[in-house]
Input
Amino acid sequence: MKTFYTNAQIYRDGRFERGTLAVERGRVVRAEAPAETDRVVDLKGLHLVPGLVDVHVHLREPGFSEKETIATGTAAAARGGYTTVCAMPNLSPAPDSLETLRVQTDLIRRDARVRVVPYGCITRGQRGCGSLADFEALAPEVAGFSDDGRGVQSAALMEEAMRRAAAVSRPIVAHCEVDELLRGGYIHDGAYCREHGHKGISSESEWRQVERDIELAEKTGCQYHVCHVSTRESVELVRRAKARGLRVSCETAPHYLLLCDEQLQEEGRWKMNPPIRSRADREALLEGIADGTIEVVATDHAPHTAVEKSRGLAGSAMGIVGLECAFPLLYTYLVRKGVIGLERLVELMSLNPRRLFSLEGGLEEGGAADFTVLDLGARYEIDPGTFLSKGRATPFAGWPVEGRAVLTVVGGEEVYQGER
Output
C-alpha cells in the first residue's frame, strides 16, 4: 500500500509548489493516481518540507538520563519537526572507541523516534587533551568528531586530529574555547556583566581558537565545522576562509540570532555556553545568515534538571533546550519579519546540514521518506510546561510565535502527529 500526501505546498528545487508526495515502503515514489487500496492524506494546503536536521543535540544518554534520554529527546525532536539529529559525545562512557560507542548505539536502536547519528570524541574521554580517540574504527559509525563542551587546547593535538579525520573522510566539529581566556566567566563580558557584578567570558576566548583551527584546516585539508558561533569575529573568520575555498562551515543557534546580552535576566534559563553576546554580535550573525557565511542553524539542545538550572546566572549549569521551539521562533522572528525567506530557513534547518554531513533523507524520488509538515498559521506562546523533553529551561518562555510541525515522518513512518 502506498500513502499519498495530497494538496500540500511541497518544497522542491528551491521553491514551494502545490502537489502530492507518494510514499511506499519507507521511500518516496512517483506520485501516480492512487488505487482504491492506497491511503490518501489531505494536507489542506499545509507546507511540506524535507525533514529538519539538527547537527548539535545533547541527548544525555548514556550517563545522564536524569537530564534527558534517547526516548524523551527524540520525542521532542519529532515534535519539533526534526527527522535527524546528531548526538554530541558528552556522555558516560564517552564514545571514543567502538566499545564505548556501542553503549550509545544500542540505546538509539532501542528507543529513538527519529534518526540519531552520533559523534565520536576527538580525544580519549572527551577531555580536550591527552590522546586521540580511535578515529579509524569510529568513522563508519559517526557524523564526525567533536569534543563539544571543551576546546582542544593543543594546536599540535588538533592538527593531528584533523589529519586523522581527513584520512577517514569525516569532519572535525569544534567547540572553540581557549581555557586560559575564560578566567572564571559565565556570561558575556559586556555591559550587563559589568553592571551586575558578574564574571565575563570574552569574545576572544571563542574567535582566537576559530582562527587557529582554520589555519590548521588549511594546512591539513580537513573538513572543519565550527559549533555555535556567537561572535562577529568568528563570523568574519569563517567568511574569509570560505572565500579562500577552504572546507570550512559553521552553525549558530536561535538564541544567538534573536537575543543579546541587554536582555539577560538573573535566571539560569539565560545561561549557556557560549553565552548570549552583544547586539553587534547578533547583527553580525544575521549578516552571516543573509550572505551564506553561516550555513546551518542548530539548537545546541542541552537539557539539565530543574535543580541544576535554578541557581541563577552564576550557579546554574550551562545549557538550554531548543528542539521544540526552534522552528516557530525562527519562522516568526526572521521569516515573518522579512529578514530571510521561508526557503532560506529550509536550507538552514534541513538542506545544508544534510549536505554538509552527508545525511540521508529528504524528498528525492527513491530516497528515504523523511519529511515535515508545517502549519504556518498556528499561533500560540512557547510553553515549556508542554515540552516532551525533560529539559524546561529556555529564555523564550512566553514568547508569541507562529508556525509549528504538525506531522513528522521518518522512513515513511509517522512518528509525530500534532493538531492541524
